[in-house]
Structures are given as C-alpha cells and as structure tokens.
C-alpha cells in the first residue's frame, strides 16, 4: 500500500465534510443573526455561502452552502500572492527585482499604481499594492511574470478543487475570456486563511509574507465593517482584536475571506454573496447582511 503524499492529505482535509457548529462558550447560541440575515438574501434570490472555523478548536462554527462555487472577484488574487511569495522564498526572483508596467497590463478600477508616475516597482512592493488596494495593474504585471499556469498548479498543490484564479484583470470580458476573475467555495477559502494563519501554506516564511501583504488591506466595507477598525491602519491589535482579510467586489458579487483574532480565540471566515445588483437598496441589504456576520464574529472571538 502506497502512503499518501502530503498534498493528497491536504486535498482530503480541504474536501472532507464537516458538521457545522454554532454554539459558543458555555453553549450560548452564536451566528443566529448571520443565518437570519443571509437567509433573507437567499429568499430574495441571492446565492449565499459562508464558512467560519474556530482556529483554536478546529470546529466549524457556521456553514451555509459552503461547498458551492461562486464568483469571488478579487479574493482570488490571494492565490497569486501565494505563488509570488513562494518564489521569493525559493529565491527564484528577488523581492527587489524591478518589474515594468506596460500598455497591455493597463486596467481601470481598483488600485493606485495606474495613478502614479513610477513606471516600475519592485516585486515585493507590487505584492503590497495588491494586498493594500487590490491593485489591478500590479496584479496583471505579477501575473505576466509568473503566469496563470503556475498559479493554477500552486492552487491544486494546496488541495483546493473549488477555488481558482481564472484570468487576468480585464476592463471588459468577451466571449473568449473567462467569465469571472476568480471563483471559490467559502469552505476552501476559510481553510486557506486558517492555513496561512498557522504558517502551513508552502512554509512559515511564505505564509507570513502573504499575511503581511494582506494586513494592509484598506477595504473594510463588508464583513469587516462591523469591527470598528481604522481602514488605513489596523495591522496591530486594536481594542483586543486584529484583522487580516481580502475582499472582492464586482457587479452583483461581494466576497470576503479573512482572519479575526480576539482576546478569547481566533476564527477564519469566508462569506460570498452573488445577487441581482439592479438597485442600490439591494446592494446595501447585501452589505448589511455581511456586516451582521461580522458582528457575530466579533462577539464570538472577544
């Protein structure tokens, strides 16, 4: 009998069914608000998915259709950051290596490099831009350097079967392009962030570098909107909590995955909602529901 490889074990762990638990310390109910808020969105026609893991016990605290695959917009850029970080750890290129932006990399929307005069930046700085502002131009430059195939192989090696970065960032998607930038299941995304937190993605150095980039994230508009943190400065503990997260926004898509550490415990979480984005009221209801998940997370960890 052939012993299973470490990658095979990871795949099985990521795919294994787990019973959802939503009781806190002493048996107090938790996440009732999350189930109610996300359920209302589902009754309104949205596709909702959520997963929360207690990183101390390993228990799944909340699981709502967490195996389905939904668009996750920019959340998939985490997979690119993992590949870039792994190459830096392996010294396949230097963090101070300079990459140039070119017209073929140009894209609008999120990020600040498109508004800067600097024509070139170091690899590590591009990783920081992606972590801080989900920079689309920096994403495309890094993807041109490492290639989508390498990101896909790295993703598969982590045992992720329902989560993928499908394409570079485009201003518009034609019939020959991938329909989404990225897709994912919340079960796999929560597992991935938990593995990053524990230093188990490739190795400790690689994981910590990715967490460092993501700790710069300035988007606290979704789940993290419940935590009362300064969007521009929350890398250290603030009133006993600490956050590392990645968000994704597109028309009809809001997605977030992250780690929330409190005075009592830490959780890995992922929430994705795909909804009919035909009016502002429906979008605001989606964001309110995601913040409700945040309130439950905050109550649980603190």
From TrEMBL:
Positions of the Beta-lactamase class A catalytic domain: 52-271
Keyword Mitochondrion: no
UniProt keyword annotations, A-Z: Hydrolase
Region (Disordered): 1-27
GO MF entries: hydrolase activity
InterPro entries from the UniProt entry: Beta-lactam/transpept-like (IPR012338), Beta-lactam_cat (IPR045155), Beta-lactam_class-A (IPR000871)
Entries under SUPFAM superfamilies matching the protein: beta-lactamase/transpeptidase-like
Superkingdom as given in the UniProt entry: Bacteria
Keyword Hydrolase carried by entry: yes
Alphabetical list of PANTHER family matching this protein: BETA-LACTAMASE, BETA-LACTAMASE-TYPE TRANSPEPTIDASE FOLD CONTAINING PROTEIN
Protein name: Serine hydrolase
Annotated source species: Leifsonella bigeumensis
């Amino acid at each position: 009998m052939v012993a299973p490889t470490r990658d095979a074990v990871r795949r099985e762990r990521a795919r294994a069914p787990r019973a959802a638990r939503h009781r806190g310390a002493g048996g107090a109910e938790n996440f009732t608000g999350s189930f109610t808020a996300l359920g209302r969105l589902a009754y309104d026609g949205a596709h909702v998915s959520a997963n929360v893991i207690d990183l101390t016990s390993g228990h799944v605290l909340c699981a709502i259709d967490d195996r389905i695959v939904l668009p996750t917009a920019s959340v998939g850029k985490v997979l690119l950051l993992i590949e870039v970080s792994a190459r830096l750890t392996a010294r396949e290129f230097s963090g101070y290596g300079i990459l140039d932006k070119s017209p073929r990399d140009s894209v609008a929307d999120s990020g600040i490099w498109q508004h800067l005069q600097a024509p070139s930046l170091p690899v590590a700085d591009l990783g920081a831009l992606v972590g801080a502002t989900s920079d689309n131009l920096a994403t495309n430059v890094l993807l041109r350097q490492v290639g989508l195939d390498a990101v896909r192989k790295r993703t598969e090696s982590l045992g992720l079967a329902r989560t993928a970065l499908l394409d570079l960032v485009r201003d518009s998607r034609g019939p020959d392009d991938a329909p989404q930038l990225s897709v994912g299941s919340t079960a796999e995304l929560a597992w991935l962030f938990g593995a990053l937190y524990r230093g188990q993605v490739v190795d400790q150095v690689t994981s910590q570098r990715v967490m460092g980039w993501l700790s710069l994230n300035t988007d606290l508009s979704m789940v993290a909107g419940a935590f009362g943190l300064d969007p521009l400065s929350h890398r250290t503990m603030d009133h006993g909590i600490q956050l590392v997260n990645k968000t994704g926004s597109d028309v009809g898509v809001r997605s977030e995955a992250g780690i929330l550490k409190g005075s009592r415990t830490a959780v890995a979480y992922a929430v994705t909602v795909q909804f009919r984005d035909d009016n502002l009221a429906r979008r605001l209801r989606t964001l309110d529901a995601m913040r409700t998940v945040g309130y439950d997370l905050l109550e649980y960890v603190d």
